[in-house]
Write a structure and sequence with these properties.
Strand content: 15-25%
CATH superfamily: Ribonuclease Z/Hydroxyacylglutathione hydrolase-like
Distance between the termini: 49 Å
Largest sheet: 7 strands, mixed
Structural class: alpha/beta
Helix content: 10-25%
Number of strands: 14
Length: 312
């Protein structure tokens, strides 16, 4: 019998970067692997995206299992490489006794399956996607809400070149929203306003919002149309949705730890006077959504200037 604390909704970050892995001594606190999150409710496992962080997660899952079969769900937001490049190195996905069910947004099964296969074609990789015996056939989530064990899952189409699916997971009275690649909807056209209103409704009262915040406002001005988030808009979206906590995510590969600290300080200044707590995603960090938030940990007292940053 599990205690109530064992059944809390929890999250762990295995990859927090965007675009490309950034292994560098200046990135040790926040990490250099690309998008991958582990979400748990008791023994139930949901993995969000298969970036390079998935390799380390797979090693940990096998260590915990000690030879027992592993089951879980893997939700893929889209097939840009920084969100799938860990899958060929996911050792647990090759073992026939394991069962990882792949899920994607509504209407996207054909496109995403093709992307996963292409990544592991002989031109790019020596092992075929079909040889991953631990993966179950890819399935689409429902257009509204789907049930994955204890998890209720909803989806939202994000603003990103080629498309990207945002996910909202709810379990045990807590909620996590994961918007990995999303650019602000832009000019105040009726269509953009309607999309923004729908996104705010999708995120309403979420406990933890993990949101693409790759650029500062200055960087974003030169990168419109690239499909990634801007710091002021990320904060404003979280406030409008009455989120409990915003987690800055999809860190630019050219941003070192001090630059991310600086962005975090800017974000907190913009949210001053609101109820919003803001943190930045750190590889290896594990969080229980029932626990108190430490909103000041690991932040430099003096932000480092961002003027030298060059986005990839």
């Amino acid at each position: 019998m599990k205690s109530s604390s064992d059944m809390e909704l929890s999250i762990r970050f295995w990859g927090v970067r965007g675009s490309i892995p950034a292994p560098d001594a200046a990135n040790l606190r926040y990490g250099g692997n690309t998008s991958c999150l582990e979400v748990r409710c008791g023994d139930e496992l949901v993995i969000l995206d298969a970036g390079s962080g998935l390799r380390s997660l797979g090693i940990e899952l096998e260590r915990e299992a000690q030879g027992r079969p592993i089951e879980g769900s893997l939700l893929v937001s889209h097939t840009h490489w920084d969100h799938i490049q860990g899958l060929p190195f996911f050792a647990a996905g090759y073992k026939p006794g394991n069962r990882f069910q792949l899920f994607v947004g509504p209407g996207l099964a054909g496109r995403i399956l093709q992307g996963l296969r292409d990544q592991m074609s002989p031109l790019h990789f020596p092992v075929l996607f079909e040889e991953m015996a631990g993966l179950q056939p890819l399935r689409e989530l429902g257009a509204k809400r789907s049930r994955l064990g204890s998890f209720a899952v909803a989806t939202f189409p994000l603003n990103h070149p080629g498309g990207c699916t945002g996910f909202r997971l709810e379990a045990r009275g807590k909620s996590i929203a994961y918007l990995p690649d999303h650019e602000p909807f832009g000019s105040a056209t009726p269509q953009a306003l309607a999309s923004q209103d729908a996104l705010v409704d999708f995120l309403k009262n979420v406990d933890l919002l993990v949101l693409d915040t790759q650029y500062t406002a200055e960087e974003y001005a030169a990168r419109r149309g690239w499909g990634h988030g801007s710091l002021p808009e990320s904060v404003d979206l979280a406030v409008a949705a009455n989120a409990r906590e915003l987690v800055l995510f999809h860190h630019d590969p050219s941003h070192h730890d001090g630059q991310i600290d600086a962005m975090l300080a800017m974000a907190r200044q913009r949210a001053s006077g609101t109820r919003l707590t803001i943190t930045a995603a750190r590889e290896g960090e594990a969080r229980d959504l029932g626990a108190a938030i430490d909103s000041t940990a690991e932040v430099l007292p003096v932000p480092v200037p961002l003027s030298q940053s060059v986005s990839v």
